[in-house]
Amino acid sequence: MKNQNMNKNYTTTLVLFFITYVFLIFVNAVFPTQSDDIGRKIEGIGRAIESYKSWNGRFGELLLVTFGSYLSTTIFYGPINGLIGSCVIMLAFVNIRGRLPEKSVKDISFFGAFLVILLLDTTSSFGSIFYWAAGSFNYLWAWLFILLLITPVVSFWRGEVFSEKTQKIITASNLPLGIIAGWSSEFAIVIIVLWITTIIYAKIRKIKLPLWYYTGLASLCLGWIILYISPALKIRGANEKKYISLTDLFKSGPEGIFKRLIKTYDMFRKIFYYQTAFILSLFLLETSLLKKIGLKKILAIFLCIILLALSLFINKLIFMLLAISIFLIISIKTKKQDTYLANLYLCMAGLLIVEFLYIGATIQIYVPRRARIQFTFIFSAMFFILMEYFFRMTEKKQGLQKAFLILSCFISASTMIFVASECFNMHLKWKKMEKSIFDQKAAGLEDIIVEESTFDSIYWSYGDWSNPHEFPFEWPNTSYAQYYGVKTFTAQ
To answer: Distance between CA 434 and CA 448 in Å, rounded?
Structure first.
């Protein structure tokens, strides 16, 4: 029987998609081309081959150097990249929520909350992913391919039954899509591990898997191997101080690997751990305070929160392992009394395991915020679990739920207006800077000085790319000088 969660009326989905698309078109259109993208032209296949050999082997980067950066200077970039971004947001929502948004207080509230988290979460960088061309091609487009590939997998485990024709289409599309998805992100290794785990689980439970399930995994592995063996990956890694090759890692032995693992979890962005600890503690409190309260239960919950807080400051690896253990134990102990609640705890534990794997996947090298949108997706899923339980416990209090909807819509609309205004403000500052450059050139100056504040924004997720600085002969100043046709370019 087909999963009844898949809605048939797509009006709400289309409206929410349209709102998201208009917003993304605007921020992409007004965002000034800068940093890695400035001065780039259509460079062709030869430049892509060179990048694969010496700089960056990701599929998205090859598209970027071929035509992507140039595309960002045209009027077509806003609609195209905005469409990609809107599809990623909607696909991520479907994979987290389990369905397209319906016309309901719950789903619209969920979608609004999702947008707010995407825009404000400091673990990743919304601007570097959704409107900066170098970031979009490397990360946003990568997640489009990944989400398109894994959506049937997630739907399968949620009970969706595909027709024979649909299965043939998925099987046929898996080969190119899987290769591109694996080739687009080093983090595809985590998805590969999880995918293999589900196959093992299916074998144990004697669940028959369709052909496309295996072709998808095979093509994903192939794409990831193409990326991982690229000469550029090793060359670029060797130039990073925190990089360690797998060969050197294994040579260090069990003790060396363990020390590196501890270091990996400790050097990961601290705010991420605080957010995780906060959402876990909030869920523990919510599930105890909204149901029958007992002294023993309250004491147990507060003990769990205290243990999580202590482990957070002692060791981040211990924090993750403890959090996973606590939520698995509570899920097991709760199953007999409340299957629904036990499943929510199990989902939370599952998300923690995925987080654990994604952090562990950075063992070779530190990754910037623009490469971390997967953590924002996971955090959103955790917040959805909080919301799911809240709506379950207040289903007879329609007024409270409508108040939550209004609050969600207000905050999401305000956040989108704030981000859009900051992008437009940057557009105005950029125009002012360019006028200053032209005036200085008209006055015969070849050593151009601009205001450093031009590149600053009060929006904390505006972007994490490299901006011009006070050293004129270092990148990216040299690229700006070449682009504007001057001897030197300095920001002070």
So the answer is: 11
Coil vs helix vs strand at 489: strand
Mean pLDDT of 166-183: 96
* 3-class DSSP state of 242: coil
Does residue 41 carry a pLDDT above 90?
A: no
Q: How many residues does the chain have?
A: 492
Distance CA 61, CA 170 (A): 26
CA gap 146, 448 in Å, rounded? 43
Integer CA distances (angstroms), 88 to 82, 183, 200, 377, 446, in order: 10, 18, 29, 11, 44
Q: Could you tell me which residues come within 8 angstroms of residue 57 by beta carbon, excluding any fewer than 6 positions away?
A: 51, 183, 226, 227, 230, 231, 232, 233
Contacts with 54 (C-beta within 8 Å, 6 or more apart), sequence order: 231, 232, 235
The two tokens of residue 389 are 């339980």
**Rg of the chain taking only CA atoms, in angstroms:** 24
- Beta-bridge partners for 488: 447
Cis peptide before 210 (omega within 30 of 0): no
Spatial CB neighbours of 183, under 8 Å, sequence gap ≥ 6: 57, 58, 59, 223, 224, 226, 227
Strand partners, 489: 448
**Cα(344)–Cα(389) distance, rounded to whole angstroms?**
8
pLDDT band for position 122 (50/70/90)? very high
| 3 state SS of 488 | strand
Nearest to 127, CA basis, from 463, 402, 475: 463
Using an 8 Å Cβ cutoff, are 215 and 257 in contact? no
Residues 81, 133 contacting (CB under 8 angstroms): yes
Q: What would the pLDDT profile of 45-101 be if each residue is shown by its tens digit?
A: 999 999 999 989 999 999 999 999 899 999 999 999 999 999 999 999 999 999 999
At 246 the pLDDT is: 80
DSSP tag of 371: G
**Structure token pair of residue 143:** 């997640």
What CA–CA distance (Å, rounded) separates 246 from 250?
A: 6
* Weakest mean pLDDT among 142-146, 214-218, 290-294, 458-462: 290-294
Which pLDDT score, from 0 to 100, does residue 103 have? 92
Percent pLDDT > 90 in the chain is 84
Q: Collapse the DSSP code of 122 into the 3-class scheme (helix H, G, I; strand E, B; otherwise coil) and give the result.
A: coil
Q: What is the pLDDT of residue 3?
A: 44
The confidence score (pLDDT) of residue 304 equals 95
| Token code pair at residue 149 | 């590939």
Task: Assess contact for 2 and 160: CB atoms under 8 A.
Answer: yes
Contact residues for 46 (Cβ-Cβ < 8 A; gap 6+): none
Helix (H, G, I), strand (E, B) or coil at 447: strand
Long-range pairs for 242-246: beta carbons < 8 A, 24 or more residues apart: 242/267, 242/365, 242/366, 243/364, 243/365, 244/363, 244/364, 244/365, 245/364, 246/364
Nearest to 462 by CA among 440, 430, 434, 485: 430
